[in-house]
Amino acid sequence: MSVTREAFIALKETIKGISRDGARRFGGIERDRTSIGIPEIDQILGGGLLQGATHEIMALTPRDLSAASGFALGLVGLLSPRNTPWVWIRQDAAGQELGEPYGPGLASYGLNPAKLLLVQVPNAKEALRAAEESLRCQSLNVVLLEPWGDPKQLDLTATRRFSLAAEESGVTLITLRSGGHSPLGSARTRWDISALPSRSETDFELGLPAFLGRLVLNRQAGAGGPGGEWMMEWSHDKCLFRQANSSLNLSSACDRPATETPSAPALRRTS
Amino acid sequence: MTLATARARHPAFTVVEHNPMADQAFLERIADWCERYTPCVGLVAPDGLALDITGAAHLLGGEEKLLADCLNRLSLQGLSVRGAISGTAESARAIALFGQGGIIAPGGEAAAALPLPLAALGIDNKLLKALAKLGFKRINQIAGQARAPFVARFGNDFMDRLDQVQGLVQSTISPRRPIAAYVAERRFAEPIGHEDDIHRTILTLAADLARLMEKQGEGARRLELGFFRTDGIMRRLEIETARPLRDPKAIMRLFRERLDALADPLDPGFGFDVIRLSAAITEVISIHEPDFAGQNDLAEDFASLIEHLGVRLTPARVLQLQSEDTHWPDRAARFLPAQNGNTALAADWDVWREQDFSPLRPIRMLEPPEPIDVIAEVPDGAPIRFRWRRVFHVVIKAEGPERIAPEWWRLNGQGPSLTRDYFRIENEYGTRFWIFREGIFGRECEHPKWFMHGLFG
User: Where among B110, B137, B165 does a domain terminate?
Assistant: First the structure.
């Protein structure tokens, strides 16, 4: 054994460098994670929502669009500290259909409207460009991208570029797929969101914003991690989600039991 | 000659109505192109241009060469032009139009003006006729005379004009556009048109400009790039920055973005022979050392993001929210272009929040509010069911009303003047809405209307 001590240390350093780089590139194992606030979900996600990655929010039906907005903004609230700027890129069609962000509303939702940079883009192509540009900006924590429908530009190449940019900078991309259904190629998690009646004592008041969130894709801990379905409430005061499983206070008029599969309400017609 | 006579003589005439606007636009275009010689170009209505070439002639190798170059290029564009260089714009105009043209040596203006007809003064026809009646036809007939009778009869302006044409008093050319504080330009013997060449040129120009601005400790807030085509067309591109900018690479990137985003691409035609970069608005750069956490770098990073997005999408699409001190929901938040330097927005979004209550305001607002059909308890109860965008919703929970009266101190007979009763609604499906009834039944109106105003998360 004539390996000198120096050579040995150098070799060790090299291996360390390779593995760190490899992790950065392929696994993202050392990335920070943000807790959702519900221990069960955090555990399934392997410690929380992965930062520097793409997460996709879809509305189960058109009626759930505002709930999906609410859930996406909740994630923004989780990921972005109050004094950090955040970016909302929305396509004009989404603004016309669902309305523009409302400052006092965002504030009462627990976000900081003063730090919002709203980017209004005319079409999907510009939306993608703006998103990629924003993802390269180190001073952000989270970018909310809201394209409208299923633009053909949002293909595997585009989403792969997002992932690389996000990994590089550590900025998290939340794509809110208003009016869209075809899934993104490279999202780490995908959530199907539907509206959920809020819990309150009487019919004369509303409770905290509630959602039924179904984790349909979980690539956080590796390929094909477990999914699940939870009833969640957004606690705007603490800027955390919390479980709303107790159907105790649910409105009696809610005809849907908590365990019902989410595909059923999608088929039900509005009367 | 009347049109009828002319037509009788030459039946093949085409007659086009005089279009002063088009003439003016054409003159402006030529003026733009003439900025290749000097940044100070003034219009002399209806068909002339005055160029202030003070300190600019040597760049083209002297006044003779400049004049020859200018006249040559303009006539190659198919224009018939006459030009002269003289001490005052009026003198140059008179000599170009009524004299031999060419260059008048300093001090020679008066002598050159003497043989010219009075029409060279550029005074109106009535005055000209009045002078002709008195027998005055040429400048030399008046130049030597006593001033007082002429002033008394024809006014001070007339004599001032005479002095200016003779070069006895200084006159100024009022430029069409503000003159930039810093200018860098490149001239090419062989016109360029290739994209790479153009990009390289912009980078070198930006470096030149940066050197100039650095001496004064300034940076540019608005930059202008002028492309002068050989065939007399000039194209101008402008960018605005979110902070005083000096870094050549950053300037280059912004212009590249701008060039990429052009709706009608830059057409080099037969090539550009002059490219000029100027800083139209500048500000002093305050230099910060980044602290150890790199905080300044982050702010810089964000400003450059705003800039890039603004250049690509126009600044009006890159917005920040500003809170307004009002209770009226429509006006409570305002979007302002992020570029205008209001990065330090007041963060006083003090909204009443309590732990276990739902948010009071929606996260998204429909602007303008959308009318909905509502079945509600009369006269002023909560809605029971409603139809919005052709879909029926059954109201399960309703919180309200929250009565919001308009700002009467702002109303002057316009804008909404009815009180609104807002309800926070949850439908059978769990979707939450913000709707309002406009007008108080019986007091303000007989049939209050309902509107959808916002969506809760």
Answer: B165
As a whole number of angstroms, the distance between CA B387 and CA B8 comes to 74
Report how far apart, in Å, the C-alpha atoms of A5 and of each of A8, A12, B363 are. Answer: 5, 11, 62
CA–CA separation, A115 vs B446, rounded Å? Answer: 44
Work out the minimum CA distance from B220 to partner chain A, whole angstroms.
22
Q: Which domain holds residue B144?
A: 21-165
Question: How far, in whole angstroms, is CA A199 from its chain's centroid?
Answer: 23
Of A130, A169, A164, the C-alpha closest to B308 is: A130
Q: Are residues B44 and B85 in the same domain?
A: yes
B248/B381 same-domain check: no
Q: Return residues 12-51 of A near B (CB < 8 Å).
A: none
User: In residues, how long is chain A?
Assistant: 271
Give the homologous superfamily in CATH for domain A31-267.
Answer: P-loop containing nucleotide triphosphate hydrolases (3.40.50.300)
Tens digits of residue pLDDT in A98-108: 999 998 899 88
Q: Are residues B376 and B447 in the same domain?
A: yes
Number of domains in chain B: 3
Domain ranges (residues) in chain A? 31-267
Instruction: Answer yes or no: is B344 within a domain.
Output: no
Identify whether residues B81 and B45 lie together within a single domain: yes
Tell me A4's DSSP state: -
Structure tokens at A50: 């992965």
Q: Which of A63, A69, A109, A116 to mutate to test the interface with B (most CBs of B within 10 A)?
A: A109
Among B347, B359, B399, beta carbon nearest to A205: B399
Cβ atoms of B176 and B43 within 8 Å: the answer is yes
Cβ atoms of residues B166 and B113 within 8 Å: yes
Q: How many Cα neighbours within 13 Å face the side chain of B293?
A: 4
Boundary-marking domain end, from B286, B309, B343:
B286
Checking ipTM against 0.90, whether it exceeds it is: no
Across all residues in chain B, what is the average pLDDT?
A: 86
Domain match, B188 and B150 both? no
Cβ neighbours around B25 below 10 Å, total: 10
Residue-level pLDDT at B354? 62
User: Do B157 and B229 belong together in one domain?
Assistant: no
* Measured distance CA(B358)–CA(B425) in Å, rounded: 11
Give domain status of residue B4, yes or no. Answer: no
Residue B312 lies in a domain: no
* Per-residue pLDDT band at A21 (split at 50, 70, 90): very low
- The answer for B243, left when phi > 0, alpha when psi is -120 to 50, beta otherwise, is beta
Quote the CA–CA distance of B257 and B240 in Å, as a whole number.
12
Quick: pLDDT tens for B232-243. 888 889 888 877
In this prediction, residue A266 has a pLDDT band, given cuts at 50, 70 and 90, of very low
> pTM to 2 decimals?
0.73
Task: Name residues 139-158 of chain A within 8 A of B (Cβ).
Answer: 139-140
Tokens at A161, concatenated: 């570029």
B7 forms beta bridges with none
User: Would you call B320 an interface residue with chain A, using a CB distance cutoff of 8 Å?
Assistant: yes
Tens of pLDDT, residues B137-156: 888 888 878 888 888 888 88
Please identify every stretch of chain B with a pLDDT value under 70, giving residue numbers as ranges.
287-296, 341-356, 413-416
Whether A265 sits inside 8 A of B429 (CB atoms) is: yes
Q: Give residue A244's Cα distance to chain centre.
A: 19
